[in-house]
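Bit of a strange request maybe. I'm writing a small parser for structure token strings and I need a real example to test against, not something I typed by hand. Could someone generate the tokens for this chain?
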Amino acid sequence: MATTTKIGATQQFVPIKEVRNGIVVLKDDTYRGILICSSVNFALKSADEQRAITEGFQNFLNTLDFSIQIVVNSRRMDLRPYLALLGKKDASQKTELLRIQLREYIEFVRAFAEQSNIMTKSFYIVVPYSPHLEIAQTARGFLHRGKPATPQAGDTASFEEHRVQLEQRLALVAGGLAGTGVRAVPLGTEEAIELFYRAFNPGELENPIRLDA
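Reply from user aminoacidic:
Good idea to test on real output. This should exercise your parser:
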């Protein structure tokens, strides 16, 4: 009983109503689409290439008539799957020397990971869509909800109409970023659920995700 009450109280602070077809529906009946973006090693580019990227990104921002959020997610890299994969290759080594070298390499990677804080960064763009009002230009937080919206009926036809509008925005953003050398791909339903699970459960980054909970 206490656990159920705690879960219910916690969910009150999560602004998400549902994730459907990769689209995040918030409790105020506004929508969010999320693009995961590749990175560009700007420092290794020539001066002309850097200038072209900067101007391309500026042009991209100038073409938008709606707000976006750029989110950088830093996470400690989990090397356990990689080490497990290497461990399975032990038996397939043809000589004892190769097996010894493989084991030494595994121990080196494990020790290095324990002593160093190896981080991986993921880049996302959150694209909003509100059926009834303008989203505030200045967003606060990962899932800024803007002003309260008029409750929606939630029927499938309305959702599909709004989804099409949001997907057009996502395509516009992805196309604009392509001009800067950045590849952007929309998250699916499971990817979005995983992203928010990790965001709202930072202490469980190494635990498996249960979608049936």
